[in-house]
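Justification of resources, computational component.

The compute hours requested in this renewal are based largely on the per-chain cost of generating structure records like the one below. Each record pairs the submitted sequence with a full structure-token output. That output is archived, and it is also reused by downstream analysis tasks.
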Amino acid sequence: MAIDLGLLLETRARHPERIAELAASRQRRPLLGASGRLFIIAADHPARGALRIGSDALGMANRFDLLERICIALARPGVDGVMGTADILEDLLLMGALEGKVVIGSMNRGGVMGASFEIDDRFTGYDAETVVRMAFDGGKMLVRIDRSDPASVRTLEACARAVDGLAERKVMAMVEPFMSHRVDGKVKNDLSTEAMCHAVAIASGLGRTSAYTWLKVPVVDDMERVMATSTLPALLLGGEGGGDPEAAFERWHKALRLPTVRGLVVGRTLLYPPNGDVAAAVDTAAGLLPKETS
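The structure output for this chain reads:
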């Protein structure tokens, strides 16, 4: 899809009110279609300073290139929608790319990658009120729990209140949990089976109700055991991109057969495939999704 850069930039500069107008008139759809599955493109990485694609530290820095890749992905059969921060979702609104799509607003991006305060994932993006006012379908939050860092409890409390706010408005709360720790000063997520069981258990209990809570989880060893930790619907996440896509596809294929797993939320792995063919990568991932729920 060719981006009309001039129109996009002119509208942003002269007619910012168009964003709210387009959000109000956007064609919507049910969260889950007939298949009972969801395939969401993730695009909230830049707001946390996470721009790396494999060995390229600025691989995701070109916004116009990123928007083109997202539009290619959204146009492919089987792709249900996108998850992102306000800057990206509003660009897509202005481009007409969100018609008939599921849209999830990213809520906490304050844990800037590499910062001394990284584990303190403050809510610097969407709140529940704005998610509903923009006629979006849910809000996503990152929950990194470091038992040695007191900042983690602030994130847990903030996420619990966000779950409450979204549930009160009857829209999805997408919670992405990790047990984390610092290695040589850098925050690392523990992707062991045991750690993910703890993370899923903690995330499932956030808030006054779990009625509208979904989980966003990585594929790790012994996913059967990890996913048995909760009855909440779950979506599988991707990674930084730049790795072996065939290996990722194989892991997703196996995990997608587990009873609580409802689909995928993937960004860099599909938007920046090694061969550059976004459409083919997205089509391959879409083909992994079971056609019907059991």
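The chain has a mean pLDDT of 94. The chain is about 35% helix and 20% strand.
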